[in-house]
Design brief:
Distance between the termini: 27 Å
Order of helices and strands: HHHHHHHHHHHH
Radius of gyration: 21 Å
Structural class: mainly alpha
Largest sheet: none
Shape: globular
Strand content: under 5%
Number of strands: 0
Helix content: over 70%
Length: 324
């Protein structure tokens, strides 16, 4: 239930992928279900200790959810209306990771990061930054700092808690995986904020009330969070991971055009028409079609209410086998 509410794989299909909403509607439709799931998860992690095999499986699902959000964000990198909905998917996965590994306080930090950073990004759509409205940059900068894990923010508590638990248990590969996922995520957010800088504010000047201007600053205060691990208890590699994510994202923004061109080049080079597999091409294509067909059939089986019945049946058989 928690995974379906938060949109964690494989329960990902319900999430809205487009936004034609008013600024107030966007965060509501995108964030209320993950909030409900996080509330249930908060009760769950306080009473349940996950088995090691189960927690690694849930970690895989959460990382794949982050990857799915990052992939969709980069696909719609220039679509400012769709990008926040994709980022919500990645941040839901990060919040889920914080819950299952670092428990209650890290979960609350992840929820604050999810809710308030995305609210800032939604409000930024109708509040572009300019020299005439320089104060509008405060909230987006706060969201970027929180996503980067800057101290005294919710992102710092969530990320350092996750990293420290993983490093303490010798799970360096998970730290590297999350850093590699957060790099393009941070880059997408930086580009989103940069695209909302108005270079001609005089021509696009709109009279807004003081309440409307202050509204953009209020979510930024929710990103401030004290507590978490003492700084001395944070693993040194966790600090390095935060630094690497921020530095890498800033470099990636500079070369984003070259990165997209390189991705297109690699995709083109690895296309079936260009690979030297003439002898085995037909066999590989048939195998690929069969795999895709099988995956499509599996997706159809698990789709909708019927999928829940199949999952319930699978769990019943699994529990019966365990009891024997």
């Amino acid at each position: 239930t928690t995974m379906s509410q938060m949109g964690i794989l494989p329960f990902i299909g319900w999430r809205p992928q487009t936004t034609g909403w008013l600024p107030v509607d966007g965060p509501v439709l995108t964030l209320i279900p993950p909030l409900a799931g996080a509330g249930l998860l908060l009760r769950l992690v306080a009473a349940v200790n996950f088995a090691s095999g189960l927690i690694l499986l849930l970690t895989l699902f959460a990382l794949l959810s982050i990857l799915s959000g990052v992939r969709r964000a980069w696909t719609d990198l220039r679509s400012t209306a769709r990008l926040p909905a994709h980022l919500a998917l990645s941040l839901s996965g990060l919040t889920f990771l914080a819950a299952i590994w670092a428990r209650s306080e890290a979960l609350l930090a992840g929820v604050q990061l999810l809710v308030f950073s995305l609210t800032v990004l939604f409000l930024l759509e109708n509040h572009p930054i300019s020299r005439l409205h320089w104060w509008r940059a405060i909230a987006p900068v706060a969201a970027l700092l929180a996503l980067a894990g800057f101290p005294l923010t919710a992102g710092f508590i969530a990320l350092t808690s996750i990293y420290t638990v993983w490093l303490t248990n010798g799970l360096l590969v998970l730290v590297l995986a999350l850093v590699l996922l957060l790099l393009p995520l941070m880059t997408a957010v930086i580009i989103f904020v940069r695209d909302h800088i108005d270079n001609n504010p005089a021509a696009n000047r709109q009279n807004r009330s003081a309440i409307s201007e202050v509204a953009l600053l209020l979510p930024a205060t929710g990103l401030i969070m004290l507590g978490g691990l003492s700084w001395s208890a944070i693993h040194i590699a966790a600090w390095l991971a935060l630094l690497l994510t921020t530095a890498g994202a800033l470099l990636l923004v500079r070369f984003v055009g070259e990165v997209q061109e390189a991705i297109s080049t690699v995709d083109d080079a690895l296309s079936p028409d260009r690979l030297p597999l003439a002898r085995y091409g037909s066999i590989a294509q048939k195998f690929a079609r069969q795999v895709i067909f099988s995956l499509s059939e599996a997706a159809l089986i698990l789709e909708g209410d019927r999928g829940l019945l199949w999952l319930a049946l699978f769990l019943a058989v699994l529990l019966f086998a365990i009891s024997i």
